[in-house]
Amino acid sequence: MTAPTNPSSPLELLKNGVHSLGIALDLSALEKMIRHLDLLMEWKDLTNLSSIRSVEDAVILHLLDSITVLKILPVGNFKILDVGTGGGFPGLVLALARPELRITLLDRNPKKIVFVKYAGKETGAQNVKFVNTALADLRLQTPFPTYDFVVSRAFSSKSTVLLSLTRYLNPRGGLIMMLGPGAGEQPLELEGSTLENRWDGVLPFSSHQRSVLLYRRKSYSDIN
User: Fold this and answer.
1) Per-residue pLDDT tens over the stretch 130-153
2) Which of 90, 125, 174, 218 could cross-link 120 (Cys pair, CB 3.0–4.6 Å)?
């Protein structure tokens, strides 16, 4: 699938892409996502937020890619941790798409946290928190933070790292992994977790493959 010839606007491209994914989002949410993207394109050279130069490519590879999480995320008022959020992907996009979610954007890079705080304010996102720390230091907080879902987009594919993310999950919480073409048909096995759902597809108007996997925690052991 290729991008439409001369799309009238990034917003139209986003609308068409969301429709192609079979996801319903209101126009206000889509407009806020484009505002987020506009800010990213303004800031990206100052903060090393993205190497993408084309706005159209950014719509596909940042916004639509983030939206694929909604293919496997249940409906509900969930508390979510976005690990290594960078420019706010997928966390801020999810917050704009689903205002009932409570999302924490975590990144160890202070410049990136400055950006997502600004983008969150400019887009009116009321359901986000910002944490500037390394993941390993998050567990030092009191009380120990836990979440309904932890999402990892290109944070790490190492089983040891992914397994460490599960300690931040509530009982029966879910780990959402966003993987590229190397995901394969045989999913990674994570001790104490079971693969509950997955979505495999190609991002609209591109040849980029994406797999989104939801691992559900079996028990609440070894939280500390």
Assistant:
1) 999 998 898 888 888 999 999 988
2) 125
